[in-house]
Amino acid sequence: MARPHLTEMNLYFYMHSIRDFELIDYLKTKKKER
Protein backbone atom coordinates (compact mmCIF):
# COMPACT_ATOMS: atom_id res chain seq x y z
CA MET A 1 0.00 0.00 0.00
CA ALA A 2 1.48 3.31 -1.09
CA ARG A 3 1.64 6.12 1.43
CA PRO A 4 2.10 9.45 -0.42
CA HIS A 5 1.91 11.46 2.81
CA LEU A 6 5.03 9.64 4.02
CA THR A 7 6.89 10.73 0.89
CA GLU A 8 5.71 14.30 1.42
CA MET A 9 6.99 14.22 4.99
CA ASN A 10 10.37 12.90 3.83
CA LEU A 11 10.51 15.63 1.19
CA TYR A 12 9.55 18.22 3.82
CA PHE A 13 12.36 17.14 6.15
CA TYR A 14 14.77 16.90 3.19
CA MET A 15 14.00 20.47 2.14
CA HIS A 16 14.42 21.70 5.71
CA SER A 17 17.74 19.89 6.02
CA ILE A 18 19.02 21.67 2.92
CA ARG A 19 17.71 24.99 4.22
CA ASP A 20 19.49 24.47 7.55
CA PHE A 21 22.67 23.49 5.71
CA GLU A 22 22.52 26.68 3.63
CA LEU A 23 21.90 28.71 6.79
CA ILE A 24 24.93 27.15 8.51
CA ASP A 25 27.02 27.82 5.39
CA TYR A 26 25.79 31.43 5.38
CA LEU A 27 26.67 31.91 9.04
CA LYS A 28 30.13 30.42 8.45
CA THR A 29 30.83 32.88 5.63
CA LYS A 30 29.61 35.75 7.81
CA LYS A 31 32.04 34.72 10.55
CA LYS A 32 34.89 34.59 8.02
CA GLU A 33 34.15 38.16 6.95
CA ARG A 34 34.58 39.46 10.49
Protein model, in words:
The chain is mostly helical. Helices cover 88% and strands 0% of the residues. The chain contains 1 helix and no strands. It has one helix at residues 4-33. The longest helix is centred in the middle third of the chain and has 30 residues, at 4-33. The relative contact order is 0.10.
List keywords for this structure.
rod-shaped; 1 helix; mainly alpha; 88% helix; 34 residues
Quickly describe the structure.
The protein is mainly α and 34 residues long.
Task: Determine the mean pLDDT.
Answer: 80
Total beta strand runs: 0
Low-confidence parts lasting 5 or more residues at pLDDT below 50? Answer: none
Determine Rg (CA atoms, Å).
15 Å
Q: Which class do the helix and strand fractions yield?
A: mainly alpha
Give the helices and strands as they follow along the chain: H
Oligomer: single chain
Largest sheet: none
Please give the alpha-carbon distance between the first and last residues: 54 Å
From the spread of the alpha carbons, the general shape counts as rod-shaped
Number of helices: 1
The portion of residues assigned to helices is over 70%
Beta content: under 5%
